[in-house]
Known about the structure:
Chain A is mainly α. The first copy, chain A, is built from eight helices and three strands.
Amino acid sequence: xxxxxxxxxxxxxxxxxxxxxxxxxxxxxxxxxxxxxxxxxxxxxxxxxxxxxxxxxxxxxxxxxxxxxxxxxxxxxxxxxxxxxxxxxxxxxxxxxxxxxxxxxxxxxxxxxxxxxxxxxxxxxxxxxxxxxxxxxxxxxxxxxxxxxxxxxxxxxxxxxxxxxxxxxxxxxxxxxxxxxxxxxxxxxxxxxxxxxxxxxxxxxxxxxxxxxxxxxxxxxxxxxxxxxxxxxxxxxxxxxxxxxxxx
Amino acid sequence: xxxxxxxxxxxxxxxxxxxxxxxxxxxxxxxxxxxxxxxxxxxxxxxxxxxxxxxxxxxxxxxxxxxxxxxxxxxxxxxxxxxxxxxxxxxxxxxxxxxxxxxxxxxxxxxxxxxxxxxxxxxxxxxxxxxxxxxxxxxxxxxxxxxxxxxxxxxxxxxxxxxxxxxxxxxxxxxxxxxxxxxxxxxxxxxxxxxxxxxxxxxxxxxxxxxxxxxxxxxxxxxxxxxxxxxxxxxxxxxxxxxxxxxx
Amino acid sequence: xxxxxxxxxxxxxxxxxxxxxxxxxxxxxxxxxxxxxxxxxxxxxxxxxxxxxxxxxxxxxxxxxxxxxxxxxxxxxxxxxxxxxxxxxxxxxxxxxxxxxxxxxxxxxxxxxxxxxxxxxxxxxxxxxxxxxxxxxxxxxxxxxxxxxxxxxxxxxxxxxxxxxxxxxxxxxxxxxxxxxxxxxxxxxxxxxxxxxxxxxxxxxxxxxxxxxxxxxxxxxxxxxxxxxxxxxxxxxxxxxxxxxxxx
Amino acid sequence: xxxxxxxxxxxxxxxxxxxxxxxxxxxxxxxxxxxxxxxxxxxxxxxxxxxxxxxxxxxxxxxxxxxxxxxxxxxxxxxxxxxxxxxxxxxxxxxxxxxxxxxxxxxxxxxxxxxxxxxxxxxxxxxxxxxxxxxxxxxxxxxxxxxxxxxxxxxxxxxxxxxxxxxxxxxxxxxxxxxxxxxxxxxxxxxxxxxxxxxxxxxxxxxxxxxxxxxxxxxxxxxxxxxxxxxxxxxxxxxxxxxxxxxx
Amino acid sequence: xxxxxxxxxxxxxxxxxxxxxxxxxxxxxxxxxxxxxxxxxxxxxxxxxxxxxxxxxxxxxxxxxxxxxxxxxxxxxxxxxxxxxxxxxxxxxxxxxxxxxxxxxxxxxxxxxxxxxxxxxxxxxxxxxxxxxxxxxxxxxxxxxxxxxxxxxxxxxxxxxxxxxxxxxxxxxxxxxxxxxxxxxxxxxxxxxxxxxxxxxxxxxxxxxxxxxxxxxxxxxxxxxxxxxxxxxxxxxxxxxxxxxxxx
Amino acid sequence: xxxxxxxxxxxxxxxxxxxxxxxxxxxxxxxxxxxxxxxxxxxxxxxxxxxxxxxxxxxxxxxxxxxxxxxxxxxxxxxxxxxxxxxxxxxxxxxxxxxxxxxxxxxxxxxxxxxxxxxxxxxxxxxxxxxxxxxxxxxxxxxxxxxxxxxxxxxxxxxxxxxxxxxxxxxxxxxxxxxxxxxxxxxxxxxxxxxxxxxxxxxxxxxxxxxxxxxxxxxxxxxxxxxxxxxxxxxxxxxxxxxxxxxx
Lengths: 248, 248, 248, 248, 248, 248
């Protein structure tokens, strides 16, 4: 069940049975020579919607642009200032709270978002403590989860891609988009086969260290089949975790 | 061509041929008893992506939550504060400018967004004048267009639905989502057949005036066939208008 | 009755009879070779004060600097960032609400302000919905009206100046300031007689397109006599409209 | 010479002879039973315009709403948050700097504004140091002066009103508005003749301490004649001080 | 009693006896060739802690970076934008209010902070009036005092240093840090013996006028002995003033 | 070498040898019945200053209030909104950058700060990419390290306190303050001996779950001797890590 594909009476009815919602959150940023700019928003969206359909959960619209300043050296990347992201996420949360939602589960697809999501959740709780979320607003609980940290998923990534998984433009994440969009396949000469690894500072430094945008990965290993396995594993874990969160 | 479905080298290549991009922008808000909460984001997204595919334009990710405070009396609506929306749109624009984009065409699906989009564009130009868009940033031109104002579309709406088009939860917009998602059809007893009309103030007042969320409309007239006609008309007009804008 | 020319007991007494106030809002921006920089603040101030005197309405202080980034290429123009204008208008509104005002009628003199005024009103309603306007604050209704859209005024402009009214530094608005300040008359060689027309983007682009600041107008037609007719017409329409708004 | 009563070519010409401008700044707040809500904006406006006319200085539009939270217990008072006032004053300053102004003299009419004006000036200098005022922006100097601190004025106030000058709703400031607007005279029973004195905290506390809004004053002593003397004295001192500031 | 050296049950117990707290506030900025960058935070910290220990008052953590843009031409200076300082001080105050504190006494060590501290206090009161400090928050009273304005201190400064006290990097303030940290003594050739005096504008201008950072002072006169006298005098005055403030 | 205990010429000299600085950052929040409210600011301050003294590094002033909304149910806790903390940290960083610092090492003492520190660093890099850090500003590298994650420290904590280390108000952190301030020792009846564990949501929820403020810890095990071992270990690791960071 997707919020943006529902009518308001359907959400009204849902709220009589559950106060919990999953919100996919990602980014729009370069993912190397053959990865999609939308990879980090698409992966949690694909997983959350599948889980929502299977288990009857409500899935919110996707928060599709995030913290990507370090990728700004590559065309197509869009980034929010951290303060903007906190403001926008808080507006989403305060809106949902007015309708009675009390459990927001943010399914994240971008490591670079983790800190700002956490800061935004602190901001939401701050609004509870200081009364800025509005009078008579129910208490809120949030959790944030990266899809690759769902139970069993990280292990599966390592098993599928023991070499060249890396940390950006990984074969795992690209497999998921290849699975969801089998017609979309990018080709490029990739060299070196496995990208360098290192730290992340600002955008210029990033481009110098990682000339084609990959970090430690060999995304040519990606396949729709691997993507299907990852999605299946992630969906199952998400359903379990979300049910426990919603019931707590 | 969709930005989030492209790789960064593809955007690099695109920028050698064009500095222009279309960004669908809408909202997540109630659309009456049978309309989708995502209607206003989906309509421009559907039209823009179709046009982009046909004519080779680049279509950005969809800005999917907007100015919907007046719909906050209905479950599922999500709204941004105007200052948040201006900050987020400006961040999107400043990111795109860093890559060399000089023409941003915002295809809008929500009347309530019009003012804040315009204020955000003023803010972007302010950044040009006062140098806050960054050194060496090319000048920017934006335009904002509601899809129903594209050449010939308003006339077609009136022709298809001479009675009961109304201004919110209209049969025209719902036809477009019915056309794009033929399997998604909501049913409800709707009464009165044509909703009341009137002004818009705050959320409580809105709910009192428009108890099921519609304004002046009879959305039961919506059909996939009408949606197809509207999309076809809008796509053609959008291609013409965007080409002229990109070339100016 | 002007707020800034009243004592607080007089406002206390007024609030026992009416919860409505008119606030003139304009800008400080170039108005071509012979127009005053204050034209857009002066016109609504002149009309509102006259109406207030005739009909006993309360007129607030004039919000005299607005959205004028596109005129920044001409000396003397002062502009607010949209976010500043929203913050300031919201502060004015929240102050007035604390005293019991429930109807704010913004009489606007500058087309470039329209969007940001509307965004600011959305922000005020947002504060109502989310409780940020303060506890026990009465609901608020705002309306925004450009003086040239008051009933019959636009028609009178066209009748007085069938050729060369244009859209910036118009003979109509300059006639109003000439009528109110008969001793103030600027002279300049104006060429071409009727200024070019076109779109508005940023300040540099504006200056290139409209070298002396006018858009489509021939302000040399302006006269105190025409100004008097316009003010008389506008005042009558404003009284009618404001009475209806205050009573709704 | 008043900016809002000038054309842009006149400002262009002025900038060839001077980079300095006076900006009257005040507030809209209760001034006791017989004082005008606009007193603190009107006094510096009256003095600055007279000085500008006599000596050929440029006088900007009046910043007419300021820091008046402590007067919010009295109807008609309008106040800005300090952060809003800083943002707005900085926008004014940055606009003027773009045109080449390098000396901003803020003539203030409200003691409660002093701190925030000073903070705003710090903010403007911060923009110089950190480059946020824009590239190629000339260095800026500001000064802020309360009209009653102009040379000789305070002494004259004490001489005119040796008893009951007080510190809010003073006979001196009310004399100035009585002089400028001889037809505007409020009457009320005032008791006690001289208002109490004490500290200022929040609005509720203020209303309890100063039930009719006055602090330490007996404004019934105000007269147009005293106002004329004060304005004459202040204008002369302002001309001297501003000339020195502009030339430094 | 220092807040940061206490446990929460100790603060709970304190609040049963007093609702008042002293918060030292200063800056981190150059203090000439031999003054410490932390001088303005250290002086109020030293005085407040001594007073707190003697009289059993609670002393909060030190707000140690303030308004120092004009010193940015000298290495080591750190400055906040005024809007940041207002936001941070308001967060401190709103936190303390939640626990029941009703009297905040800011003991300040930096003249450049005075205006922004006052603006921040206005902001705190604004939050009271407009309900943004949270529901059920007790009313707040703040006072701000520069340590050199405590009763008798200014006189003692003049007596100790009749020549060369100056206004920045003064022998008085440096004496206090010399007294508190007898092992810390900087040496430098200082010329001229007494620094020039003049106005303060932006950072570049400041560095030109005051090449070694001093204004009007001869800090070589500083001594631990003078520091002891100043601290003793200030502590006694602070205890008296704070007791009166806490009891009011 | 401590910045606030240095003169500006000393910082000038330091910058000729190093562009790197350590900034201790913590919080002011309850630490259970016997822990100090300042624990999380004191621990990194103690370690950083010791390391700075030993190895000649520069240590900045301590950022002493952080992200502590979840502790707001306990008296004495002070918290910043995330957006305030980002603004303040960015102001500190931009100030230091103006002087030529290029490496900021934030030594953190509070787990709850981690996300917002990271978001603030993203914000600083954003300012680099978008030019808002000022023209001619050198590129910046930041790192953030929790003191308990310095090489070998976590292992030592576990070795010293195999049972009851917990995650808040831990014997390790309290040992450090006991070592640094041997005269400060709080006593309280603590029950249960080991506090409960669980998740963290808002302040009310926290107080219900953790009635005396501890999470999973038995702080009665703390001792000055353990503190000395921890500080010694941490200092050594910090010197190594900072030297590598400064040299990179």
